[in-house]
Amino acid sequence: MHRELQRGDRAPRGWAKGLGAARRALALAVLALAAWLVPALASAQTAVPVYRFFNIQTGTHFYTTSTNERDIVLSRWPQFLYEGPVFYAYLTATADTRPVYRFFDTATGTHFYTQSDAERDQFIATQKSYIFEGPVYYAPYGAGADRAALYRFYNTRTYSRFYTDNPAERDQVLQLYPWFQLEGIGYYVFTSMTPNIDVSPIITT
Hints:
Layout: H1 15-42, E1 48-55, E2 60-64, H2 67-76, E3 80-89, E4 97-105, E5 110-114, H3 117-126, E6 130-140, E7 147-155, E8 160-164, H4 167-176, E9 180-190
Antiparallel strand pairs: 1-2, 1-3, 4-5, 4-6, 7-8, 7-9
């Protein structure tokens, strides 16, 4: 029978070395579990479609992830032509996404979308006709697999924005509609309902 170590007793040779190795093995196991668990938890959420409408009366577009909002528009406002899902987003935050904020412009009856905190704050402070509606979905904060750049145009005739992740549509607008000013990449969007996960650190703007 082994006698318990008493104060002042010397630990058996190799005991401390073995304990250190056990701690290192445990730390490696925890890191391996975290590396497996973070993507697994993040990928548990399925992205939802973002639906697009074209308003034939105003020449502007409307976007929504809400099937309820989509169905209300379809049933009440025939001037909105349904164009279907155009890209995908999450409804709740994940490690590789940031919120997309929506504003309603009471002057034009159109919506404005941005992922930039600085632009959100600027519009709240300076654009009095814009009503802040808060985050409406969550989109990736950078390029990567299963992601696409969402290009943003400013329509100088309607004073509204147009968004597309389709490079062919972007080029067509640039060629045919000179009153659409390309503002660059608004943010990035998912191109799949089950996108690959990127858990890099988030950079705010």
